[in-house]
Structure formats: structure tokens, C-alpha cells
Batch of 2 targets.
Target 1
Amino acid sequence: MPWEVDLIYLPILQISKNEYNVRVKRLREEMGKRELGAFLVTNGVSIFYLSGFYHMATERPAALLIPLDGDLVFMGPLLEADHLKHQTEMIRDVRTYLDYPGTTHPIDLFADWIIQLGYGKAQIGTDNPAGAVGTYGYTGPPLNEKLPDAKFVKADEILWEMRLTKSPEELALIRESAKWGHLAHQFLQDYTAPGRWDADIALEATTEATAIMKKTLGPDYIPLSGNRCCSAGFRGQVGQKSAMPHSIAVERPLREGDVLVTGAGADVGGYNSELERTMILGSPTDRQKHYFDVMLKAQDAAIKAIKPGATCADVDKAANKVIHAAGLDELARHHTGHGIGLQGHEPPWLDQGNLLPLRPGMVVSIEPGIYRLGYAGFRHSDTLVVTEDGCEMVTYYPRDIESLTI
């Protein structure tokens, strides 16, 4: 009897052209309300968000001009032209210069092109009136000074507002990211042992998980972060340095009794997820169990607080209440979480000073931590989606101390 297949799972690996069109339409609707003739985008992530074109931002100025009506215009270095055409059909007007600084500065060319396009005297919304990001030692005249008859209106909040809530396609990419972050983290945990260096373990776990991910998803999967599709590591949070939330490296191999704070994730269509766990190498001590328990209860309280209408402050306060009840206020070093999407950190910020209400479609990390300098740090991080009636845990790696004891 032949096999009958009712459902074939085909993961979404990139944003569709239709969704990019919807994003541009939404931006243009807001431009119309604000009487903007065009919108100039210089941030590389925002250019990708609106057009599907991803590039390595360097000293060379690059910008996307979105008119109220008509073709999107890319202005940037010649070396990006072929790359752009290979990635996206959204941009039809491509204007390039040979290189920076050139015999004619790129910003002078940007000004000339904007005049040629008919916006030399227009009101132009932008994320950056200077016209260039200014990384890698870039220097140059501000674009708004080169176009004195135009009015530049800084309006990057439009783009941030658009990115606050995720579409079904974006959520699918983030969920797919979480699956592969889990795989990388499982390898990380499997390979963790006393006497091994954190960097060696991370490299082995990342390499093996990346190979499986690439083979499984096939040629349609193209990571934007280079050859590393998914990854897992410790980021230096080993032993006493686990008490430093943004530690970088550790000067010794792992040893029995170490508290380890991990991190894992994956790039799917430019979108990310965040998975972090506190692992213990060897039998946990009573002190380690206590700190771990407080951290886990704080995370549980924050998760329970996530629902539409609750504020970002409510979530942070819920976690802080648990830490305060345990008498460990002085061990907190950061707020409870942040937004995740095209960037590892983006709005909304789950901070006691942020009164922004949560809305369905927002994606956030939940990661309250406690850190005793000279001893250890304890932090889990999970990726969650705000739903119509609460929240959905996108990451589902075990959180209990038994599962995370090596």
C-alpha cells in the first residue's frame, strides 16, 4: 500500500516579497500622514527590513530612498550592486559610486541623486539626517547640509514601531531559529566536561549543529551571519566569571563545581531567538541550589506576567519582587528582558521604567539574573511571543536544575 502524506512540513526560511511590499506600503501610509515626500534609510538592518537586501555596513555610505510613490532607490558603493540584484527584486533603481572617499565624496553624489530624483526641496523623513552611518572611521559632510532647500525630519521611530510586533512570517522564522538553537545547546551540554576549554566546547557544538542545520534545510537556507548557521557557547561566563553578565573570556579550563551560563541561537532569514541556561558542573551545592531556585522563580513570575495590556514595567517588577523577597536585591545587574527579531536586542525593553503596554505579536526574552561577584551568576533566558491571551514559549529547553547538572 503506498504511503499517504496528509501534511508536508516546509519551514519558512525567508520573508516573502509580498510581506516586503506590505512593509513599504505601511511606511508610505505613515509618510503620507506626515507629509513626507520621501524617506531615507541609512541603517543596514532597516534597509534589510524594508527591501530584503542585506549588506556588510562599512566606511562606505549606503542608503535606501523610499519615495511616496515609485521605485525604491539604493545609493551606495559599486561593490554592492551585483550582491543587491542577487538578493532582492524590491529595488529597481540602483545608483553607485566606485569607492570611498573617491574623487567626489559619496555624500555629494547622494545629494546630486536626490536632486535628480526631484526631492531637492522636499520634506524627507530619515533615520539619520547626516546620510551615512559613520562606522569604520568614516568622515564626511552631513547630507542635510548639502541639501539646504530640503527639510530632513528625523523619524526613525516609524520603523521601530513597525518592528515592535511581528507578522506570522517573522514568528515562523523565530520559531525555526529556536529549534536550531536548541540543537546547538544540546551539543554544548553534551560536550561540556572538566578539563576542557570553553572555546573548544563551543566550537565543536557550533560546528556540528551548523552542519546538521545546513544539510537539513538545504540550498534554500542562506544564513546572513556567514558560515555559522547556529551557535552555542559560554561567552566567558564560567565559574566566578559567570557573575559577570557580559563577560568575554575565561583564562582557565572548566573544572568541577563551576557554574556555567550559556547562550545559543540561530540565524533564520535574518531573524534570531535567544536561549540561555545556567548549568552546573558536578553535584550542586546547597548554595548553588538556592540561587538557582530564586532565579528560576523570578523567571517564572516574569513569564506569568506577560499578557496583552500588561506593561513592560509589570514584567520587570514581577521578577524583581521574587528577588527582593529572597533578600537578594543587591545581586541584580540588569532588567528582565528585551525584544528580539532582526537584532539580538531591540525594543521593547522589559524595564521597570518602561510603561509601554505589551501587544500580541511582540517577541521578548525573559532573563532575570542574580550575580554574586567572586562566586557565581545564575540566569536563564527564553524567547516568548505575546499572544491574545498570554504568551507562548518559543524556546523549550529544560530549565530545571536536574536536567542542567553535568
Note: Residues 168-191 form the longest helix (24 residues).
Target 2
Amino acid sequence: MKKVANLVKYLLLLAVSVFLMAYALRSINFAAVQAELAQANYFWIGVTILLSVAGYVSRAVRWQMQFRPLGCHPSFWPTYHALMVGYLANVVLPRAGELIRCTFLKRSENVPVNTSLGTVITERIIDLLMLLLCVGFTLLIEFDRLFEFFSGMFSERVEHFQRNFSTLLLLAVIFLVGTPLVVWYVYKNIKRLRQNSIFRKMSEFLRGLWLGIFSIQKMEQKGAFIFHTLFVWFTYFLTSYLAFFALPGTSGLSWQAGMAILVVGGIGMSAPVQGGIGVYHILVRTALLLYAVPLDTGMAYALIVHTSGAILVVVMGGISLVASLLKRKEQAAAAHRIV
């Protein structure tokens, strides 16, 4: 039954991605897009791919650093392979990769899943803060253009919120009333609950999750952690900006435009659909219109950047998946020989 539910979820998300991509391609002159792509300078795409590889390696190093305060010392390559397998899984099923990479690290380096999942939550919080910082900085340097873009986007969200206000209010009331009741019940019955195996396992899981989330507090190399965080986001910016030079229609755009696309593209990639398909293209092409870039050229840019990034993830993630499976096979064979 669980497999059927997961399959239905996957098919629904895939259908949403297909719909959004079809929506993004509407009113597009495919001949014009093809003409833009035919003129593309793929040297710059190659440069952005190399930068993306460097960013993934830096992410793996940063993730590896998060485990040291917890007494876990996973090697670099298993950590890197688990990270890339997770990104590969996200292409198929959004957010599933976060749990899958923790599972792979458990199998290869025996790092508890709850602990590694806590580090992933911290990683995502830091990425959200970095995105918000980029949004704030970009608003300072490109206020007029970005204000126009975000005001249009958030006006739709406000209308949606107003239409569903009663439902949201009911959920808020249930949460505010239900949370204290649950806490009170646990407190009053803590001794009896501790005798329950399911409660004990849940408590242990939450404790490991909590330790993973706050792992950076005890980190000794905070400077190196900050460096890798900034480096990862700098590669994101360079990928957005240098890709402008791949097309004649975007080659004259400024670094400020690169920051705007970094922010807008980051929002698109965080959407809960496979690899941000459709959402990324819609947002990026719309943002480029603010810089007088024709719709067809904007779509060509979005296709080049998104497709090259997706292919890179599939290739690197596929290699990491094979490497992880082979390693596991070797470990199983070694254990069999010992027995």
C-alpha cells in the first residue's frame, strides 16, 4: 500500500512538472528558441559546469565537517557519494533525496540516520538564510526591477491566502490548542511512556535529530564552514552570471542581473517539483523580461542553464550511485569471507 501511495505521489508531482513546463513553453516561438540555442557558446556552459562540480565538492566537505562535533567521522568519498545520490533522487522525487542520502551514509559509514538528517535540516536552514541575504542584497542594487517582479508574485500569494484564510485560521487554532495538550499529556505520563518501546525509539530518534541540527555550535572549524558556505553560493552566482555569455541575447547583461537570476532561479529550484522543472523556467524568463531580454531568448537561457545542471546531477549522481553499490558489494563480500 505504501509503494502504491509513493507511486501516486510521484506521478502527481510528475504531472505538475509536465503541466508547468507546458505552461512555460506556451506562447514560445520554438524556431526562435532553436535559433538562439544554435548560436550558443558552449565554452561558457562548460565553465559553469566546472563551477557546479566545485560547488558540489565544497558542499560535501561542509557536510562532512558537521559530523565531527557529534563524534562521527565519515570519510570524504562516502559523504560525497551519499550527497550526490541524494541530489539524483531529488530529480525523480522532490525532497526524497534528503532522506536517501542519510540512508546511504548510514550504510557506508554507519552514521545514524537521525543524526545525519539533523545536519541536513541545519544545512537547509543555512541555505534559506543565504537565499534571503541574496534577496536583500539584490533588492538594494536592483530595487526597481525586483520590486516589480516580487510585487506581482506576492500579490497572487496574498489573493490565495485571502481565499483560504478560514482554513488557515482553523489549522492555526488546532496547532495552538493541540500543541500544549500534547506537551501536557507527555509530561503527565512520561514514566509510563518511557516503558513503551515505540516512544523510546521516537525519543532516541528526536534526540539524534536535535544533536544533528545543533552540530555547528560545537564545531571547531567554524571559519572553514563559513568559507565553504560562501564559496557554494558564489559558485551559484557565477553559474548564473557566466551563463549570460553563452547567448548573444544575454551576453550584455550585468553582474547585477546575475544576482537577480540567482535569487529568482533559487526560488524556482526550491519548488516542490522534480528539479524545479517548469517553475525555474517560468520565473527566470519572466525576470529576464525586466532586463529587456525577449521571451524566446529568456527561455533559451533557462533551458541551457537548467538542462546542463540537470544532466550534471544525473551523471555525477549516477557515478556516485554505482560507486556506492560497488563499495557495499565489496563490504558484503569481505564480511562473508571473515565469516
Note: Residues 2-152+206-332 form one domain.
